Amino acid sequence: MNSALQFKNSPYTPFMHETKVNLGNGIELHVEVGGQPEHPTILLIMGLGAQLLFWPDFFCKTLIDHGYRVVRYDNRDIGLSSKIRHQGPRLNTIKLMGRFALGLENQGAPYNLHDMADDAALLIERMGLENVFVLGASMGGMIAQILAAKNPDKVSKLGLVFTSNNQPLLPPPFPKQLFSLIGRPESNDEEGIINHSLKVFNIIGSPGYINQLETMQTARKLYQRSYYPAGVLQQFLAILCTGSLLHLDKQIQQPTLVVHGSRDRLLPPSHGKAVAKAITGAKFELIDGMGHDIPPHFIPHLSGLFAHHFKS
Length: 312
Hints:
This protein is globular. By secondary structure, the protein is α/β, with parallel strands linked by helices. It contains eleven helices and nine strands. It has a single domain, classed as Alpha/Beta hydrolase fold, catalytic domain (Rossmann fold). The longest helix has 15 residues, at 190-204. Residues 40-294 form the AB hydrolase-1 domain.
């Protein structure tokens, strides 16, 4: 671990410490670390518009208890990391989505997932981490696939949860789920935005496993920590302008575990299966009843699967 980094206690999670890491490419990432320095490191990469707190504390703590050190961070354009001010032309999202579904190339986003994977590679370097296990969720899983394919020296094993490789003609997200994620809140005050978040959590989450009070508290905490809707749109454009990762999956040599929820309607399970099929020797696990989220009910099973995968 780079000893020059200055850590202080996380204001959110008692067992995590936070710091800022300057990547040297104009981007500064906000990072939290937990666990013993001598333990093997799992780098957690979160999804579209999701701050590092979307990795539940209980999930991080369970991995730490399994004997790992955990690093979670805000991707560029979200949370407390650098924001990308873009002055370019406005892109037609619907047109891009149509081309994307057919596997056609899109251009024009301020950055794409390759740039975000470069951020992760630079973060590993700047923090002085070696032989990292990488676990990516949703868009973070897409970033993790690129990272593992392009940096075999930095990533020793790969874990992916509810993600996709965006190969052409996969079943699209259910419209209700997709538009909840990229839709606008009814009002822009704190309550309007928290209600919107609550609606999103309920629409994409695991049916029957969502605690409304906890979800509301989380939504408020996330809003008060950072609210930057422009970043969410720019990350969505980054996905659309990256396209299929199928050719990269074929380059991945690291042992890979792909986990998906049977009730995921944002990225149906066939997306995870396509990833596992494309990566040589990858294992696929379907978790019955889980949606596009990590509710407490599934955490012991989920963290156990990944802890075992990274140890074996």
